[in-house]
Amino acid sequence: MIRLGAESSKMREIELDDVFLSRLQLLIIMSKAYLNGYPLGRHRIKSILENAKHVKVEAEGLDEDLELFGDDDGCANTLGFDSAFYQRVKLLSVMAEAIAKGHDLESHKREALEKNLNAVCEIITFNKRVSDIQFLKVA
Amino acid sequence: MYSVNREVLPFENGLDAWIYFESSGAPDIVVADVILAELSGTELSEKVKGLNRNTVVILYSHLSEREALARQAGADAFLAKPFGVSEIFNLVQRFVVDGQPSG
Lengths: 139, 103
Hints:
The complex is a heterodimer of chains A (139) and B (103). Chain A has 139 residues and is mostly helical. Helices cover 64% and strands 3% of the residues of chain A. Chain A has one domain (26-129). Chain A contains five helices and one strand. In chain A, α1 (16-35) runs antiparallel to α4 (107-125). Chain A is globular and about 45 Å long. Helices cover 41% and strands 15% of the residues of chain B. In chain B, α3 (66-72) links the parallel β2 and β3. The interface between A and B is medium-sized, with 25 and 26 residues. β1 (2-5) of chain A pairs parallel with β3 (77-80) of chain B, so a sheet runs across the interface.
């Protein structure tokens, strides 16, 4: 039997923050796949739309919490990201949604998407809460 | 290009899954919590392996003591919560793309 996942001492239930980060990671991978010319099948289109919707709503909520309760409130900002990060995530979800809906991105929009993706990946890489950065190898 | 093209069927509990498998045949892969209502993931694992020993069983839990239960039930993999997308990719690569159950 193979064993994967958290170390025994760090095992716990999956929380909403974990789901947000996993969906964001999937969105990053699928957006990079698009930029690298991989075709969009119906499963990937469905997955992009679902993940983009979830990530956008969560990013808006987390950003609002930051605005209402501030950076210092541990409860409001458990992930440790700032408002600029959530703005980038919202932009990523809007662009990913456009891709899934069949809008071909012009070259300047593709560049903007790539820049945004790289910035999001960089922020995630240095976030303490994000232990799973192996996904970046896939991306 | 490799195409996975598998059907994914969700069930409310272990018993519902077993009733379906009993009539329709064992699936390629079962993913379940170690503890489930009606019929636990470990019981489901044993029953499905009895139906087809080649079916891959992946059990997950948020409690470390349940890893031993998964092993006893003959599971091929144990996923300790919380897990990330890399672990899912690892399992898909191993059991879907390569199609290799663990020894």
